Amino acid sequence: MAQPPAAPPAKGRAKTTELPEHLKAYKNVWVFVELEHGRVHPVSWELLTEGRKLADALGVDLCGVVLGPKAEGTDQAIAEAFHYSANRVYAVEDPLLAEYRNEPYTKAMTDLVNKHKPEILMLGATTLGRDLAGAVATTLQTGLTADCTELAIDADKSLAATRPTFGGSLLCTIMTRAARPQMSTVRPRVMAMGDPDRSRSGEVVRESLGMVEDEIVTKVLDFIPDSDTNQAQLAYADIVVAGGMGLQRPENIQLVIDLAQVLGAEYGCSRPLVQKGWMTADRQIGQTGKTIRPRLYIAAGISGAIQHRVGSEGADQILAINSDPNAPIFDFAHHGIIGDALEILPALTEAFRKRLS
Ligand code: FAD
Q1: How far apart are CA 5 and CA 249, in angstroms?
Q2: Among protein residues, the one whose CA lies closest to atom 31 of ligand 1
């Protein structure tokens, strides 16, 4: 059978792993401060906290990037970026950036990068951040590692971006050695958020967008906020109670919901419960669901598979309820109850109800 011709090398793709001379001028760590309708997504502060460690390891500045209309919310985002340890903020303030649209945001970000040359650029792996990161990386023809779980500076000063691979059974570390900036996205709650220092301030560098409405294909006709008030707010919950296949029947999910209600907690589950249609996908905890960082995580009838562990081990305290003393969840739980979750969950609910009433 005839072999198809080999694909020509992609235009502009780097052929060496050495950093070309002209890219050696790229310096500083940048974090995209995600602002939507006047509110900053907290992942931005988590990334600035992480970015501070990277900037210190490299001996460079930490900078925030704020894109939005000139408004109170934008001023607030700039001020807060300093509180979360940015030395400098690059801001593009333009009415065309009032609603997120890929074209003006990509232009604003790529123009800033081309002019001010950061060596690292980090964005939250949110819906907005994922959309923007991909467009910026392809426009700049640089490397982007998505959904990183760990970021570090390598011996040669490259960014070592670690993320799960092969269905979460392995971790791989990816380097962008021949292009700049080195880009990465990180999901909310994967990195810890530091305490703000309200006394800090810094330098603001303002640039213009240089675009008119006619150049933008996408038009926002209306913004309709999500009306589903039952949507899970797992990522930023203080207490989370979750159930796994150990619950055995869909009606037993109520035992998890009851305990969550008494504790004022959010409730979630392991992936098989979503696959069975027992809970909605927004309640799944783990690698392909939400990453949580509550003060307390109660996991009932969950084995603790690696894909569940990566999304939950950031909790301050983990209480596992499992009938199998050898369940992997006991390897990373702080407290364990070996027994039947169907008996222990209602007993805990009753005990907390009495104590908290
Ligand atoms: P099981 O593994 O069946 O464990 C049930 C546990 O309940 C056992 O430990 C058992 O001892 C215990 N038990 C049984 N009866 C009782 C009882 N009466 N009382 C107390 N304990 C009892 N999983 C996730 O959770 N989140 C993810 O994001 C995720 N992403 C994935 C991505 C990929 C690419 C793949 C391949 C898998 C992913 N998984 C994920 C699935 C994961 O590998 C596990 O299969 C899953 O977490 C197992 O769920 P479970 O612990 O509820 O069920």
Answers
A1: 55
A2: 307
Q: Contact at 8 Å (CB) between 165 and 149?
A: no
209-229: buried (b, 16+ CB within 10 Å) or exposed (e) per residue?
A: bebeeeeeeeeeeeeeeeeee
Residue 266, sorted as left (phi over 0), alpha (psi -120 to 50) or beta, turns out to be: beta
Q: Which ligand 1 atom sits nearest the alpha carbon of residue 289?
A: 28
On whether 231 is known to bind a ligand per the annotation, the reply is no
Biggest alpha carbon–alpha carbon distance for the chain = 77
Q: Name the residue among 105, 35, 129 with its Cα closest to residue 77.
A: 35
Closest among 44, 39, 74 to 194, alpha carbons compared? 44
Place of tokens 């109660």: 298
DSSP 8-state assignment for residue 276? T
pLDDT in tens, 101-124: 999 999 999 999 999 999 999 999
Q: With a 6 A CB cut-off, is 324 part of the ligand 1 pocket? A: yes
- Residue 66 carries which DSSP code? E
Q: Report the DSSP beta bridge partners of residue 239.
A: 296
Cβ(233)–Cβ(118) below 8 Å: no
Protein residue whose Cα sits closest to atom 34 of ligand 1: 167
Q: Which residue's entry shows tokens 């589903």?
A: 228
Does the reported pTM lie above 0.90? no
**Region 188-211: what's the mean pLDDT?**
96
